[in-house]
């Protein structure tokens, strides 16, 4: 979808291949890291999130139980993938953030446009992840189009989560009228769009704890790409 439409309209750069980190020296581990074996799994909770008890046989022969978090089934409409979108204005050299309610903290915090990849994002080109990113940009930031960069291969946020995250940078998207934009979820009531955030202000927001770890990680990926593009020093 993006590969066909965006290049003709506003340019699209999808960096699909990312180099792996070379590890010159590893301390304190065995050379064979594939001796862990999952021997049992059981879903112990399944609602908005799913909690799985995973029993693993260790290289020593012993076993350990881990509780793994994934996305709940929700009727089969949601995948175990999520997207984050960082918006940058090349004229003002500023970012666009969203400020929304964080239920875990019971307060509003800054973040990026983000959301889950759902069945409704599937298209004939099989680009559901990119489609989800475009939808989140429109729903949460009221923006569309722009020049897109995929910043990483999908990865999980920690060792106890299975949800894979993909991060995008979009340059100079166009505003869309509130009445024409895709509707936000009911749980996103009170969400605000914050324009005009400089790179230094963004880093201050991160270091002061005003963004989540995942949002901060995605923002730093975007800042790195912006430096590569010559947008910031």
Automatic annotation (TrEMBL):
Q: Where is the Nudix hydrolase domain?
A: 81-187
Domain of life of the source: Eukaryota
Name one matching Pfam family.
Answer: NUDIX
Q: Which InterPro entries match?
A: NUDIX_hydrolase-like_dom_sf, NUDIX_hydrolase_dom
Name it. Nudix hydrolase domain-containing protein
Origin species: Entomoneis paludosa
């Amino acid at each position: 979808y993006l590969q066909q439409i965006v290049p003709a309209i506003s340019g699209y750069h999808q960096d699909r291949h990312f180099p792996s980190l070379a590890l010159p020296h590893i301390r304190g581990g065995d050379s064979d890291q594939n001796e862990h074996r999952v021997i049992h799994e059981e879903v112990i909770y399944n609602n908005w999130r799913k909690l799985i008890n995973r029993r693993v046989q260790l290289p020593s022969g012993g076993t350990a139980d881990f509780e793994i978090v994934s996305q709940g089934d929700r009727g089969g409409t949601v995948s175990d993938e999520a997207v984050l979108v960082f918006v940058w204005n090349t004229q003002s050299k500023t970012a666009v953030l969203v400020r929304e309610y964080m239920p875990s903290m019971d307060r509003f915090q800054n973040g990026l446009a983000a959301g889950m990849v759902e069945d409704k994002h599937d298209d004939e080109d099989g680009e559901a992840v990119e489609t989800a990113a475009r939808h989140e940009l429109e729903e949460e930031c009221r923006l569309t189009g722009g020049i897109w960069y995929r910043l990483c291969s999908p990865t999980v946020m920690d060792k106890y989560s299975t949800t894979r995250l993909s991060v995008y940078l979009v340059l100079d998207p166009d505003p869309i009228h509130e009445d024409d934009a895709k509707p936000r979820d009911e749980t996103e009531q009170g969400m605000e769009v914050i324009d005009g955030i400089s790179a230094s202000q963004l880093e201050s927001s991160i270091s002061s704890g005003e963004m989540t770890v995942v949002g901060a990680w995605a923002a730093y990926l975007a800042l790195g790409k912006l430096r590569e593009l010559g947008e910031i020093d």
